[in-house]
Amino acid sequence: MKPLTLQDLAVLAAQPSPAAAAFIRVQLDTGGIAAGAEETLAAFRDALAAANLAIPVQRVGSHGRSWADPVVEISAAGLPPILYGSVKTEVVPQIVAAHLQSRRLIDDHVIADARGAAAINAPVTHLLVRDTGAGEGKTEFFQFSFAEELKRRGFAEQVQTVRALDLGVYDEGVAVTLLPSGVTYTNVLAPDVARIVEQSVGARQVLDDLLWKKADPQVRIVLRNCGTVDPEELQDYLHRAQGYQGLRAALAKTPEQVIEEMKASGLRGRGGAGFPTWLKWNNTRIQKAEPRYIICNGDEGDPGAFMDRSVLESDPHSVLEGLMIGGYAIGAAVGYFYIRAEYPKAVERVERAIVQAREAGLLGTNILGTGFSFDAKIRLGAGAFVCGEETALIASIEGKRGSPSPRPPYPSVRGLWGQPTAINNVETLANIPAILQRGGAWYAGYGTETSKGTKVFAVTGKVKYAQLVEVPMGTTLRTIVFDVCGGVLEDKDIKAVQTGGPSGGVIPDKHLDTPIAYETLQQLGSIMGSGGMIVMDTTDSMVDVAKFFLKFCVDESCGKCAPCRIGGYQMLQVLDRISRGRGNAEDIAALRRICQAMQKASLCGLGQTAPNPVLSTLRYFDDEYKAYLEGGPSYARKMARAAAGGAEPARAAAPATATAD
């Protein structure tokens, strides 16, 4: 294609994003593909051809709802965009026949978000019904009741009642969403059916006593394009996502002005430590040595975490654009993507984005005719968790063994091949184009005083709807777990939330109302990390949880420094002894001593933070450790069940050295 110019981007910026009259978007990230999304896409193309329907079937990235894969969005037949979940190939013919040919939705697959709409500004076409309470057993009854009432009042031909898969409302009784307005009612009772049909369907009046007024707690900045643009097409990014407008805005400023804009945004590194992005860039820029480099850290290794992978797979051009802006700000001409080799789809799409950007004149020499030259390359990681640490990552790119080096000097002074280097993770870079396009002050309008903007979390574990969540900093853990992810599986009681991956800590249920920020999580004995969040219920043993994460860190330790290599192994032996019922009171004191030594003397962040799961479980769940010491694992489990609401068990007769069960 012809190389783009600044004028070309200015023209694109002045044009509104094209709104397709009809489309079918199939979400194809690794999770979707594993669930059969490629087969679903092929099934749609076959079914449309058989029905002689000319509707484009588009490939997009993931919106984040991994629990509902394969996920498909449809805008056609005069209906607003509708999201379907769990769309296996056998469901496709039903959707084509019902939705595309009869303007009717199918049961048990529609996903809608209750976003606080307060007006019915168009004739109601569909009532989405779901029982969100414990048991969720009233959905079919209310679907039948609404269908009968619609028939009685003469609306049966105009309005369809549909059993929804998800309405974005939880533990609020029966919920009803009116389409196309999005007005949602909660705690609907049988007597409310008639007046909803009469007043809301018939007269378009909102029933204030039933209205769900809470706005969506999520704000999508990092995930703004995920699920809406084709990650393999530059033209889609340029036209529908205002792509590379952040770069255009940056090139209209001096590098120093770009750094000042980042300072105004308050963006802190999303890789774990939370170091101010502007300061890292500035520290790299002021070094006199050249050349300088910038690196995108895509070595996501936390168990259960998939934020960076999903962004790279769903919106690679935004991360590339952020890398280019960072390169311009620090005076770098080359940038590197360091991506785990276990992420083949992410690697493939980033490679494609680089090739497309180069062909469009967005990479190379004299970019957009501004004199700025920059190119990007990819290096693959071999799956070593320690290579997420900056100096180990640099060593790996250089072809050396991936192990940390003492700091200072920091990479901003002496990094890749001994030159000044800035390292930012995927989420950090994905924020940057939006910040340059809309301004640092806009971004700083989200979050808290010290933690600005939004944060993406991969919420997994004992949670009903595992997914990617993006919320403003300051949002509580309770909001994420219960208001966004639907609460705990099987409606059990929540026990704790673990944040920050293997280096993070366990936060008990009594602290779920703590606003999420770098400082507040540290005060609780955890860390922000890259954004992993694992939910645990009352059946989970905190001793086993600490043992699991510590074993991961021991396995992933590079072994370079003794505090981490020996201390981690010693702690694991102690925890194993306790979990088998063979520990004693001195073991607890030993754990604390080893933790302290590792925190103070380890060479890098892996060893320094590996004790966090142990220390946080000792801090909040010391009674579980005592139960293991007093009566072994069987007694500990009984005590945990009793604490969760069961009867207080009799004291175990087994001594502290009881054999493991």
Descriptive report:
The structure is a single chain. The radius of gyration is 27 Å and the shape is globular. Mean pLDDT is 92; it is low at 646-661. 53% of the residues are buried. α8 runs parallel beside α12. The strands form four sheets. The chain has a five-stranded mixed sheet with strand order 2-1-3-4-5, covered by helices on one side. The longest helix has 22 residues, at 622-643. The protein folds into five domains: 1-108, Glutaredoxin (3-Layer(aba) Sandwich); 114-215, 3-Layer(aba) Sandwich (Glutaredoxin), CATH 3.40.30.10; 234-444, NADH-ubiquinone oxidoreductase 51kDa subunit (Rossmann fold, 3-Layer(aba) Sandwich), CATH 3.40.50; 454-537, Roll (Ubiquitin-like (UB roll)), CATH 3.10.20.600; 542-643, de novo design (two linked rop proteins) (Up-down Bundle), CATH 1.20.1440. It starts with 5 loop residues before the first helix and ends in an 18-residue tail after the last helix. It has 661 residues and is α/β, with parallel strands linked by helices. The protein is built from 24 helices and 19 strands.
Question: What key attributes describe this structure?
Answer:
disordered C terminus; Glutaredoxin; 24 helices; 40% helix; Rossmann fold; globular; 5-stranded mixed sheet; 661 residues; alpha/beta; 5 domains
Write the SSE topology.
Layout: H1 6-14, E1 23-27, H2 30-34, H3 37-50, E2 57-60, E3 72-75, E4 82-84, H4 92-102, E5 110-111, E6 126-131, H5 139-152, E7 160-163, E8 174-179, E9 184-185, H6 192-202, H7 234-240, H8 245-251, H9 255-265, H10 277-285, E10 292-298, H11 307-314, H12 316-330, E11 332-340, H13 344-359, E12 364-367, E13 372-381, H14 390-397, E14 421-425, H15 426-438, H16 440-444, E15 454-461, E16 467-472, H17 477-484, E17 494-499, E18 505-508, H18 518-523, E19 532-537, H19 542-556, H20 562-579, H21 585-601, H22 605-609, H23 612-620, H24 622-643
Parallel strand pairs: 1-2, 6-7, 10-11, 10-14, 11-13, 15-19
Antiparallel strand pairs: 1-3, 3-4, 4-5, 6-8, 8-9, 12-13, 15-16, 17-18, 17-19
Helix pairs in contact: 8-12, 8-15, 9-10, 9-12, 11-13, 12-15, 19-20, 20-21, 21-23
